[in-house]
Design a protein that fits this description.
- Chain B: InterPro entries: L-lactate/malate_DH, L-lactate_DH, L-lactate_DH_AS, Lactate/malate_DH_C, Lactate/malate_DH_N, Lactate_DH/Glyco_Ohase_4_C, NAD(P)-bd_dom_sf.
- Chain B: Its EC number is 1.1.1.27.
- 2 copies of one chain form a homodimer.
- Chain A has 9 helices and 14 strands.
- The interface between A and B is large, with 89 and 89 residues.
Amino acid sequence: MHKSGSASSLGPGGLDLTPTFFRQIQRAAPPSPTKRHTKISVVGAGNVGMAIAQTILTQDVADELVLIDAKADKLRGEMLDLQHAAAFLPRTKIQASVDYALSAGSDLCIVTAGARQIPGESRLNLLQRNVTLFRSIIPPLARYSPEAILLIVSNPVDVLTYVAWKLSGFPSNRVIGSGTNLDSSRFRFLIADHLDVNAQDVQAFIVGEHGDSSVALWSSISVGGVPVLSFLEKQQIAYEKETLENIHKEVIDSAYEVISLKGYTSWAIGYSVANLARSILRDQRKIHPVSVVASGFYGIEGGDVFLSLPAQLGRGGVLGVANVHLTDDEAHQLRDSAKTILEVQNQLGI
Amino acid sequence: MQKSGSSSSLGPGGLDLTQAFFRQIQRAAPPSPTKRHTKISVVGAGNVGMAIAQTILTQDVADELVLIDAKADKLRGEMLDLQHAAAFLPRTKIHASVDYELTFGSDLCIVTAGARQVPGESRLNLLQRNVALFRSIIPPLARYSPETILLIVSNPVDVLTYVAWKLSGFPSNRVIGSGTNLDSSRFRFLIADHLDVNAQDVQAYIVGEHGDSSVALWSSISVGGVPVLSFLEKQQIAYEKVTLENIHKEVIDSAYEVISLKGYTSWAIGYSVANLARSILRDQRKVHPVSVVANGFYGIEGGDVFLSLPAQLGRGGVLGVTNVHLTDEEAHRLRDSAKTILEVQNQLEV
């Protein structure tokens, strides 16, 4: 019998329906622990954390959902607001606490906690505030769920995924950053909208830093299996490199645009992270551009660095990185992106 | 070719991939209008409107989703934030405007616009502000979609559904208020949580005003088919009437509790209204406690009044009201609830 802590008039001292409402069948064994019970903890009940939690709930990704935040009142309000929808959803156990003990035994821990990116502020400026915060978040998460997969969303996500990796002591396959999964979705949306085709038929990766130095892999974009750049060449449709750079820049700018219009982003990152959660927990073995330890790929060197590459995800976390062919120019931009991240990272004392 | 207005570098003047990307098959006819294209317009891009829109999107309820609001920047930001998730969702056409013309031909118009309920403010206090607002919302909606179903969410929902009915000139089966659909979900959640049973196995209605004078129909509550009150009697479990009233009061207070903790409610009403939208548009013929014209039921008289009754919903809107048996006391409270609403309504000039 679990109580969500919501009502006091139902139960001992009030109206107690439980005596004999259900009768046991004979010769039953006690309930066996089920291996398929999936538990997700979301740290941070702000706009991003709640959009992720609510999408996970609607898409029926987990059996148990735990919300963690430092603000107890806001947290309780958000928990109740989700619980009240019970009549409209498959049954999911939803709880919330300021205490990390509630996250014990999580299969996946999603960290969204952090300061909100102010309009005009680059993602790197958030860093110092968030590293301090992570020192109070990552060690307890790791202690209570030593086998969990950590999925980092807080910005700047590449550096903070590195920080989470160091602070948790986890193997690198179990520490993942949401990275450019959303940038790539925005990129695919722009191309799909232009061609009036379903975005899921557009294969297009943005990799590298989730930020200004990200790299659009034009050479490997295809739509319905048709490689776009060689299509343009065969059709003798001229294009300028600058045009491609402008399209890429629109993707980078679109996040800042949403922030300047509505104050923050929430829905898209919610869908993006719920999609990653499902890929991981349901062992979908799909390829996602997410932030992984990139040392050794495409000539990246100079220290451990996390940045987005097309990575295959499954129940074990990062299964591997897809061996996508990069042009010399793309590989060069990727190495530059790695250097950008390392410059910042090396200033931290981790 | 539909353009969402998001990119300028993809298209004429920039990179135009559309020439020859897709080739037509021979002897094709122009696309035929499909009768199954469902279009939903949501008026109000605040917390409630966006939770509804996002849940409708996630649950794949409609082919086309239109957002209307007076604040153009916020509106555009919300639209982009939903569009950017295209890679993670079935394809839904999403657009937004301050101009009601975009709602043309909607199958369902959901109205959430209105002032936010301030902590401590009763729903009836919002009324005067919202009636004025409805004079600018309802007539254009009705003009652009004369066959649509109007679903009113703004509070106080019962009076505003009456106002929407008068201002639209629609037949009463096509004007519905979200009513006590959510209160009933909260009620079912409390009972389900106490008994550790799935909330969907709890049949329980709160009817009447969506507000302080709502009526809990204890006499018809059942769990897995077991009528609760007669169960208690047969098991000789004593209970006091005041305990039942306290449980009901907790349901009424739970909305105020969420507002005081997180500032507003959003997720639960989002699921509640998406659930109604699906029942209506997919002709599910399910029974929901929603605000309908209640004259003539259970002795309610004194003028046209909308309040929640268990109503069967389908593609034609309200198909009918189920003939639930009410005890004398429950019927009496329902008539009192009607009077409460009428007293306020009669002060308006609609």
